[in-house]
Amino acid sequence: MTETVDLLVEGGQASAGPPLGPSLAPIEGVDVGQIVADINEETGGFEGMEVPVTVEVDEDTGSHTVEVGTPPAAQLVMEELGIDPVVENPMRTRWRTWSSSSSAASPERSPPTSWETTCADA
To answer: What per-residue string of b and e applies to 55-80 under the rule 16 or more CB within 10 Å gives b?
Structure first.
């Protein structure tokens, strides 16, 4: 009998913890460490992106296969454009405005208003 586990892992960063470990632990004869190593090897080229992975385990033999899907299109586009999707602290991020004294090609950061300063310190 074959058991299938579908999950989303960060490229090259799978671990035996949740969600993978608890999904595979009940299956008899499974080497979770080897499956994690195989997933990390297969997804290493997608570092920083969440990748869909399907793991099929044959319960009789303990053998497994790892199938890696394609990351979501939005993540591929952001990677290609060099956009970092993670904002460490969005309350401290300042909006950019266009100064009338500067050219359209050179945005300047606006000075913080009292509201922004209050929110950033909260």
So the answer is: bebeeeeeebebebeebeeebeeebe
CB-based burial of residue 19 (10 Å sphere; 0-12 exposed, 13-18 middle, 19+ buried)? middle
DSSP string, 85-112: ---S-GGGPPPEE--TTS-TTS-EEPPP
Residue 113 has pLDDT above 90, yes or no: no
CA angle 87, 92, 98 (to 5 degrees): 95
Backbone torsions φ then ψ of 7, nearest 5 degrees: -155, 170
Q: Write the single-letter amino acid at 22.
A: P
The span from the first CA to the last CA of the chain, in angstroms, equals: 55
Q: Which domains does the chain possess?
A: 2-76 (3.30.1550.10), 87-121 (no CATH)
What is this structure's pTM?
Answer: 0.63
Query: CB-based contacts of 59: which residues, under 8 Å, 6+ apart?
Result: 1, 2, 3, 27, 28, 29
Predicted pLDDT at 97? 45
